[in-house]
Amino acid sequence: MGNHVGNGSRQAETFKKSNEKLIDKLKTLRMDVNRSVISFVERTTNFQQDSKIDVTEPTNAHSLEKLTRFTSHYVSSECFDGLGSIQKMMQNMFNIWQTLRRNAMKCNLEVRRFFAAIPAKLCFFYFYTGELCTAVACLIDFVDLAESTTAMEAALRWLMFLGETELIEKKLTKWKVDETSEDMISATRYAISYMNQPDSRVEMLDKLIKLRNKIEKDDDKSSRRKFDLASYIFWLCSTLSNVPVGKSLNECDFPDRLSHIKNAVCKFESIIYVEAPGFLPYQSGTSVNASIWSILEENWRGNSLGYVSIGSTIAWYFELRREWAHVNVTTAQTSDSMSIMISNLRIALKSASFFRILQMTNTLAYNVNLIEDFDYEDIAKLMRGSLINLLSLNTAKDGNSTMKETVMQSEARTTDTGESYQSAPKTQNTNMIILDDQLEGPDMLNEKVFHDVVLSCTCNICVIYHSSSSFATEYMMSFMIYSNFSQLAIKHFNDEFALIRKRELLRESQIMMHGDSSIQPKPNIIQHEIFGMCVIRWLTKNLDSKECANETTMEVFKNALNIVAYLKYRTTDLFLTLRQLGRQLEFPMECNFSWIQPIIRKPRVKPTFEGAGSISRAVSPIGRRAKLVKKVTTEPFDSQRFENNRLTMQREMQYFAHILYREWRCRMYSYVGKTSKSSWEAAYGWAESTNIGSRNAQQEQLGKCKSGLVTIPGVHHFNSCGQNMPDDMTLIQIVMADDKTIYLVKLHADRDPIIMPLAHYHQAIEVMDKFTYLLEEDRQIVSNHEKYKFEECWDRRKIVDCQMKKCVENTQKHFLGAAASLLLPSGRLGPNATALAIKMYNMAKGGLLPGEAKELVYQSKFIHPKTWKSLVLRYCEMRGIDNKSKSQLLLLRKDGFNAMKQDQTIPASSKIYTHLVICPYLSQFCWERLPIFAKFPYVVRHISIHSAFSQLDDMRNQNKQIPLNIGLENAFYILDPDNNLNGTKRRMLKYINKFNWEGSVGSAPKLTEVTDALSKRDAFFYFGHGSGSSVVTQSLIRQTTCNAISFLMGCESVRTIPQAHGFDGTSVIQDYAMAKCPSLVGCLWDVQVVAKHTSIGNNGKENLPITTGRMISYSKKPKIRETEPNSSNLILASNYNNITSKASLSQEPIKLKETTKIQKETVSKTPKQKSLASNQILTLRSETMNQEVPRKAITETRSKVQKAPPHPTASQNEEEKDNLKRTRKRKLLVSTIPNFCKEHGAKKPRTTRPSSRLIKAFHVVQKS
């Protein structure tokens, strides 16, 4: 008995001593952690105080250059030196804590709260350095020790972010739940049930939306908890639409992802404004520079909960903003996404967190090339240089750094469990490449600059790489960007990611589940996103370069598809995109017709004023096609597999019709357009593959997402809309496919859609290069007009004018070819023509589609027989029609002409309209001036097929009263708001004062005046530079309901600047379209001509008519005077800017009451006519004569003083007409040829009869 007592006392004494030792270890660990974290905070604070980042600058490329210079400064600062050793030290202390945490949990509450400082400060460090899984493990330990409600809510939020739903359910059974946390716990449970139980999604969706509305209506506007909860619920709601929509969810209104992630950021920014104002991307008024020390020690006085709260808050803010940027790119919001990403980099530099700087630099470097915005190549080069600065081992120097010796350059390598590490020499810390002060763009090094990551190396990169899986993944993303997503790089990333992921899952199981096998750890969602994004870019590059898929390609593809499918509700966009890229890898479906081939491009010199005198370019061809090389396929075509893919795509279109993710939608729907056997399904695919960004922006305004809200809900609805179009309306879409091939889609109520591939992407590039080159030539002439005589300046513009005309003709001939006739408006066929179309369809043995046969019969009346035969041959090549049927079809042109003549379905006096929807890349070209439209001048433009169908629905249902005319007395104008167009302002005021309009002159009007003008006036006029975006901002337009016909008379006011495929481009058109503007008139090119006076209607007494979307131009021989450069000074005379009109298409269009008169102004004795290249004036119909007013050609030179004979009258015979034409031509030639020879350095003719060579050369500028 005594022995037992003695043994018990000894055991108690031993236990007490062991406990004392454990307590001492915990105390020592607490001091070490505290000392190390304070040292880290002090280093960070020193850099934050030294680097004063200007947050007042705009988020543009110029500010980005300064931010990259701050990046260079960061990696040469003391904050970066020794960062690897701190990381290694913190990792050792975290490992010690894992061995002691169970003992700490057994202590009483007071002791537990004392030791809770250990996981609290570890949690802060790992949150600040981006190692989320380790940080969340420390956060959970802190909750278990301190029993803090605030920390528990933060833990719930982060576990939900990482997808650890099983761990959440287990922890909720153990943690004490406060009444104040009921809403957050309810929202979490609703979201988990929504994800895991598809049958309950309707109920859970309704509960989450009601909870969101409840929080929004909460009266407590200043509570931190309220903003925290609101941000969390908005973030949860932003992911709810990422589910397939079956019958139960088909009628549900999902929360829009874009608007809800934006609201989540805005709500949480309110917390940052109070707790960490230095981390805001803008100046808050309380602090400009971030100082983490003042936040922790001064505000929280070193409180453990303060470290947890600040670390979690800053990390959550970074992750929300990163996801916000990703969603903006995914939904094709170009301007917003670039601004957000630059702001994110600014915040990362203010935080002085190496991981965050690398993460935000990677985001920018990845997406800049994806968007292809203005100057994207320079920005991409800048960001690649910044990545090299952060991760390379080359010597570097900038204004604040010192040179350091470096040794190695190569790739990363992670060792697997049990594998021995390769030894490597110890090196100093990594540093930058040389960046000059101007930062015009760092030169990329030819050799590899990335350091070999090995365990024995003690540099910052190697130490952090092996201790942080998040950093390792970001490092590999940087390596992929630097290597331009090469085949070797993706193979290395694929192998490396498997090791990183294995290490991460093992670590999660140990530190978060603590060996509990009942809970399966979830992989890190951010790492999976990064790997999926890199594989998408690599596959896209392979498809663009026409590389065949090999075993390695398919292995990486399948691995990526499995990885992004783990948390599909968070990575739906990546999963859908990868699956579509897999289809295209298996079945590329390239378009290899004889007329769609790359062309041999000719080098061009930069346009100059002197270069405009060269005539050789005026007749240069658009390009020469390369020889057709037919690819020989060795593998048989698996038709069954292809049909299964088609069925899968149809299901995707049905289940995910409510979401508009750019990469997936523009690829899959255009692939449907290329491969579908149904013409209606194909046309539906082409329509839905476009205008993605504008429709997402519209959904963002509405705050909800639903099939049919901004999309066409299915092929049947699209078919119904097409067949209900007015007979006098033909809708033509010129669209770019996912492989950048140009397609034409034609819709008319009488026939099935007609789809034809038009041209190769290189052909489109050549057309636009030639076109923009001519515009630039004309711009150079005008900008240098003061260096030369006025007459000589206009002589040069004449030459550009002829070049432009030739360019337009060549575009129709070479780019469109036989398909140019498809641009003509169609009509309804009569019985004879319909019978012949059926005959053609049967004759082709089903090769021709019914709509194509109808169109061929209709075209036989309006186009030349050779053109008609060329069109038939194109269809035969497209449909694989045999030679016998082809020869029979070619003989039916005359039958078609006779059938159309017998039916007489279209009266000669009727007006039929062509409505164009042009892809952004080709939108600046003057399609309305193609020769094919000479007899069919009623051409309009729409922003999208969706807007055209929406207007037709409104007119049929009479939902809105669409104005058919406007009163000029109810108008508002803005004239020269920048106050730098004095001459133009003076002349325009003299004219505007006739109408007694209200407006603003020489200064910007008030915002209320602009909103009232757009919403309450009948007409809104802007005269100034560009589109007036500095006065009428994008946000102001989108938040206003625009009821006024808007006229933007500025240089390139409605020009669309193209971006990468799938983006809508940058243009003010989309803003006015979202504001429901009835009609928009503006300029595609520069306005470079001055007309003194223009009179509209009957001196303002009559109403201004609205034609069906046509830009209205009024002119009669305007006198030309020298212009102010870049001035907008020709009222209502613009290029071809026919944007969405809401006038009735089936009614008879309103005619002008009288032709417009322009008062003459004497500048010189010789009248000058306006140049086609500066501003092409559209023809106009006169009510009294019912014929086109002739468009004036280019000006005469001063040498043409001799008056030409009068034009022949209708009573003269043909012979007299020819003689008179030859006489006028000869006199013009004789009077002009001396100046022509002098200008081009040729010898003057000795006689009045020039040589044939001179006549041939002069023929280019002889048009008058």
UniProtKB/TrEMBL annotation:
Keywords: Chromosome partition, Hydrolase. The keyword Plastid does not apply. Pfam families: Separin_C. The keyword Signal does not apply. Residues 968-1062 form the Peptidase C50 domain. One of its GO terms (biological process) is proteolysis. GO terms for molecular function: cysteine-type endopeptidase activity. It catalyses: All bonds known to be hydrolyzed by this endopeptidase have arginine in P1 and an acidic residue in P4. P6 is often occupied by an acidic residue or by a hydroxy-amino-acid residue, the phosphorylation of which enhances cleavage. GO terms for cellular component: centrosome; cytoplasm; mitotic spindle; nucleus. It comes from the Eukaryota. Residues 1196-1227 are annotated as: Disordered. Its EC number is 3.4.22.49. This is separase.
